[in-house]
Amino acid sequence: MIPINDLVIPAARKGDIPVLQELIKQGADLNTKDEKGFTPLIIACYNHQYEAAKLLLDAGADVDAADLGGNTALMGAAFKGYSDIAELLISYGANLNLQHGNGGTALMFATMFGRNDLVKLLLVAGADKHIRDVRGLTVVDLAVQQNNTEGIHILM
Predict the structure, then answer these.
(1) What letter would DSSP give residue 46?
(2) Where are this protein's ANK repeats (predicted)?
(3) CA distance 37 to 34
């Protein structure tokens, strides 16, 4: 028989709400991690499973849990360009300024990948544009490096 905690991440990936509800009811660990350190919330957000992410957050999943590289659900949403997921995570108190292993933040991900709607959203929510990554680069430096002209204007 498969341990209950091993079922949470696949259900989150698929957005299988009835299964998630049952697992929550049975007391599954919502902050369990797979071999890469991904939690059910990180997986749900990365796969754009909004309802699953909301259900997990409502049930107490850690909004700021990070994988083995230090990446959070908010960073994944910024990388993928999922504004609705980012708004959800922010509404649940996600730390906007956490840094992953190389010092990158959600704002840096959004900027580097031209997710300028997310750049605006994160700035309005209070993200710090002065944080530096391990190379000493700020989000503006990264916008210039990526030739993200619109991002540069937003950040200035």
Answers:
(1) H
(2) 11-35, 36-68, 69-101, 102-134
(3) 5
Q: Which amino acid is at 78?
A: A
CB 117 within 8 Å of CB 85: no
Written as one letter, the residue type at 62 is: D
Full-model pTM: 0.95
Q: Dihedrals φ, ψ of 45, to 5°?
A: -65, -45
137: left (phi over 0), alpha (psi -120 to 50) or beta: beta
Instruction: Give the tokens for residue 117.
Output: 């709607």
Does residue 54 contact residue 88 with C-beta atoms inside 8 Å? yes
pLDDT in tens, 55-74: 999 999 999 999 999 999 99
Beta bridge partners of 72: 66
